[in-house]
Write a structure and sequence with these properties.
Layout (H helix, E strand, L loop, with lengths): L1 E5 L5 E6 L5 E6 L4 E8 L12 H9 L9 H7 L4 E6 L4 E8 L3 H12 L6 H32 L14 H6 L2 H11 L5 E7 L3 H9 L25 E7 L4 E7 L9 H20 L3 E9 L4 E8 L4 H18 L3 H20 L7 H14 L14 H13 L3 E7 L1
Parallel strand pairs: 3-7, 8-12
Antiparallel strand pairs: 1-2, 2-3, 4-6, 4-7, 5-6, 9-11, 9-12, 10-11
Helix pairs in contact: 1-6, 8-9, 8-12, 9-12
Bound molecules: zinc ion (ZN).
Zinc ion binds next to helix 1.
């Protein structure tokens, strides 16, 4: 058992790796509430054979043999505690949120829900219709990214396997597939228990170690290699989706794990520039968004437009990028942005205690554990300099980019 505490954090952050391989991470915020979650390194990227399997298992873990929720969840719900779970590309997580007095029960329930589980055929069958209903309801939410990733990455790349899966995959999942995945991935060495809120690291360890632990520890599964897996730059492909037509510009990101990444600041200025020029001056686009995806090491800027404005909008977007690469951001805008950033930091510090901060803590700790890198986040990170920003604009203007135009049906 090895414990470390980290510097440069606004609250005490600790990590212990237990002898069985389970990592325990805490952020002691001193709140009256606690968020406790168990994270496994298994997700959509592991669904190469059975599309949707990681998410299917996420559902089964929350039940005990029927479609109804697990009895431990129900018992905790009576104590003002909420349960939820999520399946991502690279991990699957199960969590409880509740008052600090319930922490031991929450952690205990997580152990019982997540380890040593096996499912039988009727249990898998009972959940399949729910999964299919969710798939049908949520398919459209992911349509844009599904199409984007299919175009960007090679067909068999794990990064094209979105956690929700596809209908064929969901229908093919059996108790055998479920149990084989549980056996392989739901192991102590492939998991981390993250607790944020009003519990001290040492106190939690006592609670954790009270749980009888056995079984095979296993090891954390490696992440598939991230950066620069793009098929290549192109500028034409169009697919039909049941959504507003839009243009996406996509780039690869170098060093995606640098936090904060100067590219994020550059993207927000770019979004601002596109808003002024294409929406306010020219009326070409309606909604503009940017996305910085650490897992896939890509970033996207997208705008909703009309099909007959595709060519003009995409030319104008390229011009905004070229203009920023040439002239940068005016110094008054830079100064205003820096003032806002400093205010943001202060409000972050003031909100680092309560439940509103838990998602941020979980995000940081989860990302650190997934990469086994506990050094990249520093709360004292300085503001992105003018030169760094200019370098980002230069890269956005000169590096390979993919332009995707999506038509509506
Ligand atoms: Zn679901």
């Amino acid at each position: 058992m090895k414990t470390t505490f980290f510097e440069n954090m606004p609250v005490r952050v600790g990590r212990t790796v237990l002898d069985n391989g389970l990592t325990v991470l805490t952020a002691e915020t001193g709140s009256a509430f606690v968020h406790a979650e168990m994270v496994f390194r298994t997700g959509g990227v592991d669904d190469t054979n059975y599309s949707g399997l990681a998410h299917f298992i996420e559902h089964l873990i929350g039940k005990d043999g029927t479609r109804a929720q697990h009895s431990l969840r129900r018992a905790l719900e009576a104590q003002n505690t909420d349960y939820n779970a999520m399946t991502g590309l690279t991990c699957t997580a199960f969590h409880f949120d509740g008052p600090v007095e319930e922490c031991a029960s929450m952690v205990n329930a997580l152990f019982h829900l997540c380890f040593g589980r096996r499912f039988k055929k009727p249990e898998v069958e009972a959940e399949r219709s729910v999964i299919l209903a969710e798939y049908k309801e949520r398919w459209i939410d992911h349509a844009v990214f599904r199409i984007r990733d299919k175009m960007l990455f090679k067909e068999k790349e794990p990064w094209t396997f979105h956690p929700i899966g596809n209908e064929e995959g969901i229908r093919s999942i059996s108790a055998k597939n479920v149990n084989a995945r549980l056996e392989r991935d739901y192991r102590f060495g492939n998991a981390t228990l993250i607790v944020c809120g009003g519990v001290k690291h040492e106190v939690l360890l006592e609670e954790v170690l009270r749980w009888p632990m056995g079984g095979v520890p296993g090891a954390r599964r490696p992440l598939p290699p991230p950066p620069m897996r793009m098929v290549g730059a192109f500028d034409e492909s169009v697919e039909e989706i049941n959504e507003s037509p839009r243009i996406l510009f996509v780039w690869g990101i170098k060093d995606p794990f640098t936090v904060p990444h100067p590219r994020q600041t550059a993207l927000s200025f770019l979004e601002d520039g596109i808003f002024r020029r294409l929406r306010e001056e020219l009326g070409l686009v309606y909604s503009i968004h940017n996305e910085f995806d650490v897992d896939q090491a890509i970033c996207t800027i997208g705008a909703v437009t009309a099909t007959d404005k595709f060519a003009e909008a995409s030319t104008q977007m390229s011009e905004v990028i070229a203009d920023l690469a040439m002239n940068g951001v005016p110094s008054d805008k830079l100064a205003a942005r820096e003032r806002r950033w400093r205010l943001g930091i202060r409000s972050d510090l003031e909100s680092h205690i309560g439940p509103a901060s838990f998602q941020e803590w979980v995000g940081i700790l989860r990302a650190m554990w997934l990469r086994d890198d506990y050094g990249y986040y520093s709360h004292d990170a300085r503001y992105v300099s003018r030169d760094e920003l200019q370098e980002q604009f230069r890269q956005l203007a000169t590096e390979e980019r993919t332009i995707i135009r999506l038509h509506s049906q």
